[in-house]
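Hey team,

Filing this mostly as a record. A colleague (T.K.) asked me to run one chain through the structure pipeline before their review meeting, and I want the input and output archived in the tracker in case anyone asks later how it was produced. No errors, nothing strange. Just documentation.

Input sequence:
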Amino acid sequence: MKILKRLKILFIVFLMFNFSCAKQTIFKNKCNVTQKKPKWANSTNMIEIPGYYVGVGYAENKKFEEAKSKAIRNLSEKISADIKSEGEISEEQKLNSSFKKEAKFKINISSNIKLYDLKQDSQWIDENCNVWVRFKIEKNIAHNILKFQEAEDLYKIAKESKNGLETRISSIKKALNIIETIDFSTLRTNNKKKFYITIYRNLKEDLEKIIQGREVVYFVKSPNESFNNLSEALIAKLINDNKGGLYEKKNNCEKIETCFLIARENLAKKMVIVKIDSKIKDDGMLCMGILNIDIYPYDVKSEKILKKPFNINRKLFSYNKNSFNWENTIKEELTKEDVLYTY
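Output structure:
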């Protein structure tokens, strides 16, 4: 009995040993390796192919999608670093805020690049099911994609009416310059260079026409909201702007410095601030309405007032305080010769 018991114990130990060995063999060879590990599967930073940007991604447990995402991110980072190194700036340029904005803008463009011309040219998996994936894109194609995206973003800025005219004009000029340098044969677009140059030039011409007609920027400041909604034609007559070159901003500049800033953004030569106020005094029998208008004309370039501020002060009487129509009163006052105002 003792011998049989010993034999059983030895048999169990034998089975456990063999199972352990088999398990180790299976673990070591859970993925078939059909080729040697390529050199590019060692690093994500040292891989170079002449004329290409290359990105390598690594992931465990056959996670190919994760490896692909990492490879694309790695490739984008290389493009960003390349553009950043090309845009190295001097100490003098660092002091130039517009240069810094432009350099930062280019780097942001590259980090958000839509790399629709990416090609996965290789992948490899080892015996432990760790995967490496490699993507590449021709540098010439990537550069043209970046240019096109930058031009499109500038075009959107130029199209947005809430941006100042100076910003819009500057943006569309930059976009035109970029478009003319793009090799459209590398891009996946049905439209050719001629198409984009045409629509960009059309927008540029439209903006320049606006500038030619808007020499005067005016601001209406009033505690009475109804005066802030006066028609442009009425304001034009009030400040005697015969050209009709008005760009209304109403009362969205609290400080004179802000008003000048807005005027410069809209490339105005003159700025007029119109302050309007009205009061009604009711003594129980008769109502007296007081209309007061002050007009301040400025030269935008020098920020100096062009002449002594002009004032319109009128008193009106009525038995009903709700009967006062201030806009009609202004129109009536503007028909009088003593109200004509030039600068």
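Quick notes for T.K.: Residues 2-28 form the longest helix (27 residues). The two ends are 127 Å apart (CA to CA).
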